[in-house]
Amino acid sequence: MPALDPDRWQVVSSFLDQALAMPEGDRGAWLETLRRQDQALATELEALLEEHRVLSREHFLEEAPELPPGDQALAGRTVGAYTLLSVIGEGGMGSVWLAERSDGRYTRRVAVKFPSIALTSGVGAERFRREGSILGRLSHPHIADLVDAGVTTDGKPYLVLEHVDGTPIDRFCDDRALDLGARIRLFLDVLEAVAHAHANLIVHRDLKPSNVLVTTDGRVKLLDFGIAKLLENEAAGEANPHLTREGAAMTPEYAAPEQLTGGPVTTATDVYALGILLYLLLTGQHPLGSGPHSAADLVKAVVETERPRMSEAAIVASIASKRAATPERLRHHLRGDLDTIVAKALKKDPPARYASVPALADDLRRYLRLEPIEARPDTLAYRTAKFMRRNRAAVTLGTLVVTATAAGIAGTLIEAQRARAQRDFALAQLSRAEATNDFDNFLLSDAAPSGKPFRVNDLLARAEHILDRQQGQDAGRVELLISIGRQYWTQDEDDSSRRVLEKADRLSRGLAEPSVRAKVSCALASTLARGSELPRAEQLIQEGLKEIPDQPQFALDRLFCLMRGSEVSRAAGRSQEAVARAQAAMAALKGSPFESQLLDARLSMDLAESDREMGRYREAISMFEKASEQLALLGRDETQTAGTVFNNWALALEQIGRPLDAERIFRRAIDIGHDDRGEETVSPILLNNYARTLHNLDRLDIAADYAERAYSKALRANDEVVINQSLLERCRIYRKQGNLGRAAEMLSQVEPRLRKDLPPGHSAFSGIASEKSLLAQARGDLTEALSFASQAVALVESSMKAGGSGSYFLPTALTRRAEIEVLLHRDDAAVADAQRALEVVGRNQDPGFHSCVAGRAYLTLGRALQARGESAKSRDMFRKASEHLRSALGPDHPEAVIARQLAEADSRP
Amino acid sequence: MATTISSLIDAAERGDPSATEALFAALYDELHRLARRELGRHGAPLSLGATTLLHQAYIDMAERDGPSFPDRARFMGYAARVMRGLIIDHARNRRSQKRGGRFEITSLGAEAAGSPVDDRELARISEALEALARTEPVLAEVVDLKFFCGFSFAEIAQMRNVSERTVQRSWEKARIYLHRTLRAAI
C-alpha cells in the first residue's frame, strides 16, 4: 500500500470525516455516489476504510506505552492501612511487598501486590474496588484471603493478600518424598478449594505450582484466585487470555487451549490447569516435556498435539524415588485409571473434560478406594454435552407465533404462550458475566454419567439440590436461587419457580445486602403476577425498588428489579407502565460501572421482546435492529445470542405481515446454527418458524421440508410445544398442497395435545378453528367453513377481552370469515368484516407501512365491493391490495399477482 | 530562563520557529526534571502516570510564571508533544539496558501473537506524527494526548472544547493515517 502524501491526505481527509461520521451501513451507498463523480477518490477511500477495519481488529495503538517505573525503595511507604516492609518478589504481573498493619493493631502480615496496570479513569478504580470486594468474599481455609483491594492516592491499584509462608506444592511433595497416595490426597485439598471458588462463580484462570503453596504444617493455600480476571478487566481490549510473561518469552505451559486461542474461559479451564498440575505431581514433569520451547511451538503443542499418556512419560530413578517407588512400580501405578483421569482433565475440547472439579475429585477418591472410576473414553458424554448445548438454544428463542395467511390461502394461528423467550441468565449478573456462564457450564456439564440426555428442568432440579447441600446463607447462594427461579419462570414452570423463589426469600431475610433482598422480592413478584396474584406482586415490586440503594454499583440490581416490574405491569395489563419501567431499566444502566456494550445489546433484546409481546411491533422491530447492530459492533453477530435476536426479530416481522423481510432475517438465524462439523445445531423452533414464513411466501416444498425437520428434532428433544407447532404447520402445508387427508390427520393429532395442555379459552384454539375452516372450505363445505371461521373470531375476541394476546390474529380471522362470506354471497357481512379487519390493522400500523395482513383484507374487501357492484371503490381496494402484497410478499407471489391483475382489469358490470 | 514559558508559547503561536524550538527544549527540561523528582521522592509510586506528571508540571509552572501563564488546554498541547519525546527516549534507554532491571515491564492483555510497542515503532510513529502535524496538527495532537499521555476522550474534548465524538473521529482518522504510513515504511 503506498504511503499517503500530504497533498493527497488533505483531499482525502475531509471525505474521511464524512465517512466516519455516518453509520457503517450507509457508507456503501455514499461511496457509490462518490464513485460516479471521482472513481479514484472512491477507491482510495474504500481502501482506507478497509484499513480502518483491519487496524481496529488489531487494536492498533490501543495500548499506551509505559512510562518509566519507579526504581526506588518504597520501604516505609504506606498503602491503605498497611506499611510496606520489603519486596517479596517480582512476577510477570507486577511486584509484591511484604507489609504489616500501620496501626500495629494486629500483627498479621500481608502481601501487597502492585499489578502493573494503569487505571486511567475513575470508573476503573471503582470497578476494581467492587470486583476486589467480590473476590474478597471468597473465604475458605485453603484459599489465601484477599484482604483488601484499593487504589493509592496516585492512582496505582493494589491488592492486599494474606501472606502465605509456604512452598509450591510440587517442591513440597518432592522435599518430603511423598508417595502417589499422599500426593493425591494433598491434591484433593486443592480441588476442594477450587470447587469452593467455582461454587461462588469465581474461576482462577492461572493455576500453577507457584500459586498453590503448602505451609510447613501441610496446609494447602491457593493464591490469586480470580485476580487474573480482575486485572484483565482493567487492561485494554476484551477477552484476552492472561499469560504470565517473563522477559520477552511467554510461558503458556499451564494455559488451556482456549486461553491461547481466545475462547471463553470457564471452570473447565481451571480443570485443565489442575490436570497439568496433577500430571506434574505424579510424573515430575510437564506433559509438554522438558527443554526450552519457543513460544510458537508451545502454542502449537498446547492447542493441537494430544498429550502423551502419563505412563509413557520418561520416568527416571530420581523422579521415582521422590515418589517413594521404583520406576517400574511407578509406571505400573500410573497406567490405567490414573492415566484415564488425567487424560480426561487435559482434553483440548472443554466439554470433553471433567464437567466440574467435584467430578474430578470424585474419580480420584474412587481411585484411592480402589473403586471403578467414572471417566470413560468419552464419546457418549461428549455427545450429551453437545446435545444439551443445542437444547439450550431452543429455550432461548422467542415465543412461537404463527401468523395467518388469508384470502384463499388461509392459515392458522397458534398462540403458544408456553414457550417464552428466555430472559437472559446473565443479564442480571453481567458484572459477573463470565461467572454466570461458568455456572451454566457447571450445571450443564455436571451431566449424566449414565449418558442420558438432561432436560433443562432436570438440570435446574439438580442445581437446587446442589445448593441445598451447601451450608451457609450468603448472598451468593441466594443469587443462584434467584437465577434458578428465573430459569423455571422462562420454562413456564410457575410452581417450581415460586417454590425456589420463596426459599430464596426466606434465606434473604438473614442477609445484610438490601440489593439481594430486593431482587428476590422482584423475582418472586414476577412469578406471582403470572399466577394472577397481582396486588401482592405489585407490592413486592414497589418494596423492592425502594430497597435498592441509589448508588451506581447497584445499577444492575436496579435494572433487574425494573425489568421484573415491567413484567408485572404487563401481566396486569398496564402496558404504558410496563414500557416506562423497561425504559427506566435502560436508563439505570447509563453511567453505571456496568455500562457495557454487551449489556446494552442484551437489554435491547429484552426490551424488543417485551415490546413484541405487548404487540408494539414497530417499536420491537426497531429495537431488534438496534440490538442486531450492537451485536455486530461487538463482533458477536454470529453467536447464539445473535441467533435469538434474529429469530425474534423475524417473528415480529412475520406478525406485522412482512414475510419477505422475515425470511431474510430467519436465514441469518439459521446460518448461525451450522457448526464446523457440518452438523446442524439449529433449534426446532427456528426451523418451524422458518417453515411458516416459507409457507407464507408460497414456497411450499421447502416449507414442508423444514416443517418435517422441525418435527423430528422436536420429537427427539421431547419438546411438546414445538411438536404441536410443527404438526400444525405441516397440516397447513399439506392443505395448501392439496393433500387434505394428511392435513386432517395432522390436525387430529394436534388438537387433543393442545386440549391437554391449555385452558379452553386459550387463543391457540382459534388457530385450530381457523384451520378447520380452511379444510372445510377446501372440501367445498362452505357452511361448515363459515361456522368454524366464526368460532375462530369469537375465540380470539374473548381471549383478547380476557387480557390475553392475539390482537395481531384478529384481522386475519376477520378476513378469513369475510372471504367465506363473499363466496356465500353475504356481501354486506363480508364488507363489514373486512373493514373491521382494516380498522384493527390501522390501529397498529402507520400509513405507508405495507403488510400482507392489510393487503389480504383489502383484497377481500375489494371482492366484496365488486360483488355489490361498487366497481370504482373495489378497484381502489384492489390497487391498495396490490401495493401491500407486492411489498410484503414479493411481486411474484401468487396473491400479489392476483391482486395486480384485479387492479388492472377493466371494470366489469 | 531569560524568557518565561508563557512568552515562549505566545511567540510560538505567532509562528516564530525558534521560539517553538526553545519552548520544546524548555518543556522537555521541566518535565524530565519533574519526572526524576517524582520518582526519586521517597514514597513515590511505582510508575508514574503521564497525565499525573503533566498535571503536576502545569501546576508547578503556572505557579512559578504567574497569572499570565497560558491556560491548561494550550499548555497540554505542547506538553503532550514533549511527553512523546520523553517516552520514546525512555523506551530506547530501556531496550539498550541489560536485562535484569528490578521491575519487569509487562503488558497485560497482549494477544498471544502481539507484542507491546517498542521504541523503534514509537520512533516511526513519532516521525509519522511530525508529518501529519504539518497538514493536520489537530490529529497529531489527539494522538499525543491520547496515546502517549493517556488522556481520555472526555478529557481531550474538554481541553479542546469540542464534542467527544469529534475527538473520537479525529483519533480514528489519525489511526488510519499512522497505520498506512507505518505499513508503507515496511
Brief sketch in words of this structure:
By secondary structure, chain A is α+β, with helices and mostly antiparallel strands.
Task: Please characterize this protein's 3D structure.
The complex is a heterodimer of chains A (909) and B (186). Helix content of chain A is 60%, strand content 6%. Chain A is of the alpha+beta class. In chain A, the strands form 4 sheets. Chain A has a 6-stranded antiparallel β-sheet. In chain A, strands 7-8-9 form a 3-stranded antiparallel β-sheet. In chain A, α1 crosses α3 (39-57), α21 runs antiparallel to α22 (555-571) and α22 (555-571) packs antiparallel against α23 (575-589). Chain A is elongated, with a radius of gyration of 32 Å. Chain A starts with 5 loop residues before the first helix and ends in a 5-residue tail after the last helix. Chain B has 186 residues and is mostly helical. Chain B contains 8 helices and no strands. Chain B has helices spanning 5-13, 17-40, 50-65, 72-96, 119-135, 137-148, 153-160, 164-185. The N and C termini of chain B lie far apart (43 Å). At the A-B interface, α1, α3, α7 and β10 of A face α2, α3, α4, α5 and α6 of B.
Which stretches of chain A are low in confidence, meaning pLDDT under 50 for 5 or more residues running?
Answer: 67-73, 234-251, 377-455, 675-679
- Overall geometry of chain A: elongated
- Rg of chain A: 32 Å
Q: Quick one: which chains have the greatest interface?
A: A-B, 70 and 62 residues
**Overall pLDDT of chain B:** 71
State the separation between the terminal residues of chain A, measured CA to CA. 72 Å
The helix content of chain A is 55-70%
Percent range of helical residues of chain B = over 70%
User: How much of the polypeptide of chain A forms β-strand, as a percent range?
Assistant: 5-15%
How does the major sheet of chain A shape up? 6 strands, antiparallel
Which structural category do the helix and sheet elements of chain B fall into?
mainly alpha
Q: What is the approximate shape of chain B?
A: globular
Q: Which residues of chain B form runs of ≥5 with pLDDT under 50?
A: 41-47, 97-116
The secondary-structure class of chain A comes to: alpha+beta
- State the major sheet of chain B: none
Return the average pLDDT of chain A rounded to an integer. 75
